Amino acid sequence: MNYSRVADPGNTSVRVVPAEARDLAAAAQLLVDFNREYNDPAPDPAWLADHLSTLIAGGDTSVLLLGDPAVAVAVLRFRTSTWSASSEAYLAEFYVIPPLRGRGIGSQFLAAILDHARERGATYMDLTTTEEDRAARRVYEKHGFDCHEGKGQGPVSLYYELDLE
Q: Looking at the DSSP assignment, which residues form a beta bridge with residue 20?
């Protein structure tokens, strides 16, 4: 992505994207850039924008953008807890463009994401990251996330995945 039009880092307004918004194209492009940055497969941005619209319309997904033009994106998926009637949120995607990392913008955006999840009734949030992504881990831990079962002194939690196709 060409970052020559990056928004002023002081412009850090967060907005929740409605299902029909023009902002879905920006969200999709940021998500594609995220995958490409890590050499992961990425769908066509137009397809992804349509797919995000479908997810949002289904009611269990929120897409949030930071800045105008957008410089960060988050995708939250909501579900009902197994152990109570409370809602839980999964931070499925969280991306800040490279030139703005290390400036506290990700931390500020994560605080807004947590507020949004609470506003939607979530009482718990989970996410995954890699052991090597120390910068992301610092941001998450600053906001109270813990990678130990039961927090604190519990065993380290692990995330497993399997393609079913």
A: none
Task: Determine contact, residues 31/23, Cβ cutoff 8 Å.
Answer: no
pTM for the model stands at 0.89
Strands annotated E in 69-110: 72-80, 87-96
Separation CA 135–CA 143 (nearest Å): 13
Count Cβ atoms below 10 Å from residue 120 Cβ, excluding itself.
Answer: 14
Query: Which tokens go with 48?
Result: 């992804």
- Does domain 16-128 fall under CATH 3.50.50.60? My reply is no
Q: What is the pLDDT of residues 98-157, one digit of tens each?
A: 999 999 999 999 999 999 999 999 999 999 999 999 999 999 999 999 999 887 888 999
- Cα–Cα distance measured from residue 117 to residue 159, given in angstroms and rounded to the nearest whole number: 22
Which of 29, 39, 35 is closest to 71 using CA atoms? Answer: 29
